[in-house]
């Protein structure tokens, strides 16, 4: 069923987000532009950009800024990507060291045009980061690599500390929200990585406000726990442009708090559930739980 917009939805108070100081945002952008790097914070018009850039933290987006898929919720440009920048892993490592980052998040556009979906590029970036800032923790937020377990092997050989792949929405809404993706395929990616490297923290996220029902959200939680997923993020979908899907409903903050409590009861070791939560927002908080030796 296609999401249907609410009638003249009023923007809630929580949507008014403070921005960082001009100087701190400018400094971060200056460093990124100098090296020709991209962040998902900018490309996806994240509402937390000001706060993250002021820390400074950022989620690097590798393999260009053009995606081979065209998801209804995402504002990243869809089309034919350019050739890979083979120096990008070195550039990201150099910038991360310059900024003094302790937790680095690497995500990407989907590159269905590449033989391995870009898994090797992720692995190369992790390898360079380990050399440049060995004490930092590394998180990756990956596409689904078409569900091929073979494509995960480079990441098993150069493992991150946290492997994130977002479910994004409930299965019923996939045909509209993620028409080129598949719910079971995404579950398979998370399950396969956990099987390859049980010590890795696995993580996923879901957006609310696209027309999902409560029982569907709880079912997604159960599916994720069923494959051993450790960390969950839940946030409100915000329409990035008029070309994207409309918001069906703004979810009350109390509902987010309730979902967070339920997720913890279901066994997730870390949960972030609030309207402006995004996959990599305050991702460094997961560092606090990384001393736990056994994930269940």
Question: Which helices and strands, and how do they pair?
Answer:
Layout (H helix, E strand, L loop, with lengths): L21 H13 L3 E2 H4 L5 H5 L5 E4 L3 E2 L9 E2 L9 H12 L3 E6 L10 H14 L4 E5 L11 H5 L4 E3 L9 H4 L5 H14 L4 E8 L5 H13 L4 E6 L16 H13 L4 E4 L23
Parallel strand pairs: 2-5, 3-4, 5-6, 6-7, 7-8, 8-9, 9-10
Antiparallel strand pairs: 1-2
Overall description:
With 296 residues, the protein is of the alpha/beta class. The chain has a single domain, classed as TIM Barrel. 33% of the residues lie in helices and 14% in strands. The protein contains 10 helices and 10 strands. The strands form 2 sheets. An 8-stranded mixed beta sheet has the order 1-2-5-6-7-8-9-10. Strands 3-4 form a two-stranded parallel ribbon. The longest helix has 14 residues. The chain starts with 21 loop residues before the first helix and ends in a 23-residue tail after the last strand. The mean pLDDT is 85.
């Amino acid at each position: 069923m296609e999401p249907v917009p609410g009638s003249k939805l009023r923007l809630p108070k929580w949507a008014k987000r403070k921005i960082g100081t001009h100087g701190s945002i400018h400094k971060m952008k200056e460093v990124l532009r100098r090296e020709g790097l991209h962040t998902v914070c900018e490309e996806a018009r994240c509402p937390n950009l000001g706060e993250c850039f002021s820390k400074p933290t950022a989620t690097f987006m590798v393999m260009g800024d053009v995606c081979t898929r065209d998801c209804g919720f995402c504002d990243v440009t869809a089309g034919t990507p350019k050739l890979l920048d083979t120096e990008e892993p070195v550039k990201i490592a150099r910038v991360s060291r310059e900024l003094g980052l302790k937790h680095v998040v690497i995500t990407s556009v989907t590159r269905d045009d590449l033989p391995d979906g870009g898994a090797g590029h992720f692995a190369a970036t992790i390898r360079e980061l380990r050399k440049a800032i060995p004490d930092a923790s590394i998180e990756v937020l990956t596409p689904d690599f078409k569900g091929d377990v073979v494509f995960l092997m480079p990441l098993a050989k150069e493992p991150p500390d946290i492997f994130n792949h977002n479910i994004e929405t409930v299965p019923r809404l996939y045909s509209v929200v993620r028409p080129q993706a598949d719910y079971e395929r995404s579950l398979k990616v998370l399950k396969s990585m956990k099987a390859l490297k049980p010590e890795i923290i696995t993580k996923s996220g879901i957006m609310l406000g696209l027309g999902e029902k409560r029982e569907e959200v709880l079912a997604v939680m159960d599916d994720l726990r069923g494959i051993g997923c450790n960390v969950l993020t839940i946030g409100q979908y915000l329409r990035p442009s008029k070309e994207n899907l409309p918001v069906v409903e703004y979810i009350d903050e109390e509902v987010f708090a309730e979902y967070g409590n339920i997720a913890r009861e279901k066994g997730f070791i870390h949960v972030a559930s609030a309207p402006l939560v995004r996959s990599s927002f305050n991702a460094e908080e997961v560092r606090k739980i990384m001393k736990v030796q056994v994930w269940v």
